[in-house]
Amino acid sequence: MHRHPTPSFPLLRSSRSADRADAVPASATSTVSSPRRPALTLIAALLPLVLAACANRPVAPPDNQDAQAVAQQTVQAVESAASAVPSPATPVARVATAPEKKLDVLLEDTMNPGEKVDLDAPKTHVDLWARMRAGMAMPELDNDLVRKAEDWYSSRPDYVARMTGRGSLYLYHVVEEVEKRGMPMELALLPFVESAFRNDAQSSAKAVGMWQFMPATGRDFDLKQNIFRDDRRDVLASTKAALDYLQRLNKLFDGDWQLALAAYNWGQGNVSKAVARNQKAGLPIDYESLRMPDETRYYLPKLQAVKNIVMRPSAYGLELPAVANHPYFLSVNIDRDIDVTRAAQLAELDEETFRQFNPSMNKPVILAASSGQLLLPYDNASTFVTNLEKHRGPLASWTAWVVPRTMKPADAAKQVGMSETGLREINRIPARMLVTKGSTLLVPRTASRDQDVSEHLADNARIGFAPDVPPMRRVTLKANKGDTVASVARRHRLGTTQLAQWNRVSTKATFKPGQQIVVYVREGQTLASVEPSSTTSKSKAGSSKSGKVTKVASSAANKPAKGGAKTRSAKVAASDGKGARTVSTKTALR
Question: Where is the LysM domain (predicted)?
Fold first, then answer.
């Protein structure tokens, strides 16, 4: 799905895309340690059983099977103990200030619509890592590449801490989706390998998001990509699409998850061909027996190394952050366009943290018709709802404008009332480019242009550019005896390859005498005449010492010609002083 340049070391790609000073801001992690958590009576009931389970657990389990068995026992014990504790007679009000109707909607689980979030429910007291360990189901891989990957991670504890810290924001939602589909829990670890759980990661091959979707594959799985948003970076949408794709690959390769993962990295066509080659040669067709690029060869060992670390972190001298077994963020519906800065202010989050939960936005405005929802940490979601109810005044300062004709950016900026520099920056218009007709630009709202962006435009907005150069004209000339593509190109100071393409011949072709030669020139451009000079009999075909020059100047009389081009009459000034002649020209399509 998303091929990347083969790294010199199996784990360096993830390092390049994610190993920066990007620890999660304190405001983004405050919910996990919120004081509003289970009652003391529940903790008292849980503590003896948890300690008993720990007492029977080896300090360093000898293998993943033992670690998985311990995890399953711990999960069962904690759930059993938690369910034995009676619920309080009066539930704790999580958000007293939010309107009751809004609060009911707000407290729904994003992954399970209609299901209320109850932070006192028994299942919320299970450590999410233990839940993940209990669900591992893929065959173990044990080779030198796995050891190499383990060494790489274990020698970089700071990197692992940042990576797992980011992952803790989204892991619950990935685990829920994997578990609902009955898929092996190892797949929930795949974003650690793909992107180190960075939803803004982008590879040199243009794979984007924490699941690293290529543009075409993303579109195949209904991940919208336009000037307003890129759903490959959306946490929920990309997770659904990735697991849909993995299920398809698993079915294609007869339930072999290792081959499915190889296809996810290398492409299903490439893996199918590798399998066919081995079958034809009478060789095994398992993952380790196929011939494949180094990156794909290292792909599963990296995933196995991450799995081993999750199963037994202490064996590698590492620690994993505590991750609660309940939604870290909730979705909040919006029915009006809203600026990113305004939404972050209403949620009482800094903009960087806000974008961690809403990374698919390409512009400084969020369109209600496009996404229709925001993702926010649990406590900040209720804050947003409360502040939105109190807010008075506009929510969005930007809207969309469709360019009525091909325009210079300066002209477009003048028409919408902003500076050319501002228009170029907000819409990423390159230098020396025109904006083509039908393009959608983000522009300031005004009294006459203050409507929210329509659903059709939000989903189909595009922007196109054309070079800002003088228009080209099609000029037809006659070939002399012995004229070649090279000689004509040299005479008129044109590119040989370009001239050959215009006339659909090879660069070594020879023209017949009198044959029409097509060239494209700009208004006012001077060309040497193809007619031989009458004053010199020694000039050879192809000589740059031509006796005449042709200057193309368009006339005012234009009539449409076949194919949408326009025929023009151009006066040609001859250098021999014998007056002007007429050359037929046609407007070239831009």
Answer: 475-519
Sequence-distant (≥ 6) Cβ neighbours of residue 261 within 8 angstroms = 190, 246, 249, 299, 300, 303
List, in order, residues 6 or more apart from 160 with CB less than 8 Å away. 153, 309, 318
Q: Evaluate if residue 439 carries a pLDDT over 80.
A: yes
Q: Are residues 310 and 335 in the same domain?
A: no
User: Whose structure tokens read 């819409």?
Assistant: 427
Instruction: Give the tokens for residue 220.
Output: 């195949």
**Last residue in a domain, options 316, 341, 356:** 316
Q: Is residue 222 part of a domain?
A: yes
Residues 167 and 228 placed together within one structural domain of the fold: yes
Q: Write down the pLDDT at residue 228.
A: 95
Cα–Cα nearest to 85, from 131, 43, 34, 128: 43
pLDDT digits (tens, 9 = 90+) for 317-353: 999 999 989 888 988 989 999 999 999 999 999 999 9
- Tell whether 190 and 143 lie within a shared domain: yes
Percent of the chain exceeding pLDDT 90 equals 60
Same domain, 239 and 136: yes
Domain with 354 in it: 329-390
pLDDT beyond 60 at 7: no
pLDDT band for 192, please (50, 70, 90 cuts): very high
CA distance 200 to 355: 10
Determine the Cα–Cα distance for residues 374 and 206; give it in Å rounded to an integer: 26
Instruction: Count the domains in the chain.
Output: 4
pLDDT exceeds 80 at position 457:
yes
**What gap in Å lies between CA 258 and CA 217, rounded to an integer?**
20
Contact 261, 289 (CB under 8 A): no
Residue 35, C-beta contacts closer than 8 angstroms, at least 6 positions apart: none
| 75: nearest Cα among 3, 31, 133, 151 | 133
CB 373 within 8 A of CB 329: no
Phi, psi of 115, rounded to the nearest 5 degrees = -100, 125
251-290: per-residue pLDDT in tens?
999 999 999 999 999 999 999 999 999 999 999 999 999 9
As beta bridge partners, residue 208 has 202, 213
d(CA 4, CA 431): 30
- The CATH number covering residue 505 comes to 3.10.350.10
Do 354 and 496 sit in the same domain of this protein? no
pLDDT tens track for 515-553: 999 998 877 677 765 444 333 333 343 444 444 555 554
**For residue 30, what pLDDT is reported?**
35
Are 227 and 361 within one domain? Answer: no
DSSP secondary-structure letter at 537? S
Question: Helix axis angle, 257-266 relative to 294-311, nearest 10°?
Answer: 130
> Are 248 and 196 part of one and the same domain?
yes
Task: Identify the CA nearest to 445 among candidates 333, 338, 335, 358.
Answer: 338
Q: Does 335 lie in the same domain as 257?
A: no
DSSP state of 222: T
